[in-house]
Amino acid sequence: MPASLELEDYVSAIAQSGAVLRDAAERAGFERRVPTCPDWTVADLVAHQGMVHRWAAANLRGDPDHDTERSQAEGAAAPDPLAWFSAGLDALLDTLRTVPDDVDAPVFLKDAPRPRLFWARRQAHETTIHSVDALSAAVGGLLPSADTSIAPELAADGIDELLRGFLPRKKSRLRSPEPRVILVRCHDTGHEWSLHVSGDPVVTATGAADAPDAVFTGTALQLYLDLWNRADEAAVDGRPELSEQWRAQARIV
């Protein structure tokens, strides 16, 4: 699952999406529900993302004492949650820019790139997706992909991380008693992935498959938001129940 972008591309995406998240959270207000994460308020979203930034930076620094529960509670209780969020964002960006390229740090996806690049990539997509959550809260519903500034190249990379990194894990819930094949096709960037779904963990390959049971198509951005369950713009040809199954089983917050 090699990264398709450079380190600075991911760092820039973290900085940009972090700013978008912060500004949208301020506009929405902390008590507003998040349509794309219905169990959360905006305050929960800010505390979660601020905790994740601190957790990622701690992994890169080799800090074994970082406590994620305590960190999230700290964010929830902060007198100024957005200042607390910004401090964690800045610390993550500084860590990513200063740790050596060969830093020894843990990663948690199979065939991941080197830790510095892995964490930059992971936090770029973590922060970008959650910035869409904050924007959705600010507008009170699903955000049209046209109303975001996410680059197609970043979107395609995020699809790849989801399909080849997250969904093949044993803990992934995407399963089918009858073997099914899903083809994902970005008609603007040309990327294609074939997912073989069965009672075992998903097997994902790049490229098209013969006779897929369903084909998910759209721009890279439409598919990025749709496959991460933040939008509903992609077209689905074939078995419609596979789209419904995706909504129920391939959800990551």
Write the layout of secondary structure elements.
Layout: H1 7-28, E1 33-34, E2 37-41, H2 42-61, H3 68-77, H4 81-98, H5 115-139, H6 152-166, E3 180-186, E4 192-197, E5 203-206, E6 214-218, H7 220-227, E7 235-238, H8 240-249
Parallel strand pairs: 3-6
Antiparallel strand pairs: 1-2, 3-4, 4-5, 6-7
Helix pairs in contact: 1-4, 1-5, 2-3, 2-4, 2-5, 6-7
If you had to describe this structure to a student in words, what would you say it looks like?
- The strands form two sheets. Strands 5-4-3-6-7 form a five-stranded mixed β-sheet.
- It has helices at residues 7-28, 42-61, 68-77, 81-98, 115-139, 152-166, 220-227, 240-249; strands spanning 33-34, 37-41, 180-186, 192-197, 203-206, 214-218, 235-238.
- The protein starts with 6 loop residues before the first helix and ends with a helix.
- By secondary structure, it is α+β, with helices and mostly antiparallel strands.
- CATH C-level class of the largest domain is Mainly Alpha
Question: Which architecture name of the largest domain does CATH use?
Answer: Up-down Bundle
Report the major sheet: 5 strands, mixed
Cα Rg: 18 Å
How much of the residues is beta strand, in percent?
5-15%
Q: Could you list the spans in which at least 5 consecutive residues all have pLDDT below 50?
A: none
Provide the spatial order of strands within the biggest beta sheet.
5-4-3-6-7
Overall geometry: globular
Task: Give the helices and strands as they follow along the chain.
Answer: HEEHHHHHEEEEHEH
The CATH topology of the largest domain is given as Four Helix Bundle (Hemerythrin (Met), subunit A)
Pfam family, one: MDMPI_N
Protein name: Mycothiol-dependent maleylpyruvate isomerase metal-binding domain-containing protein
GO molecular function, one term: metal ion binding
Organism: Streptomonospora litoralis
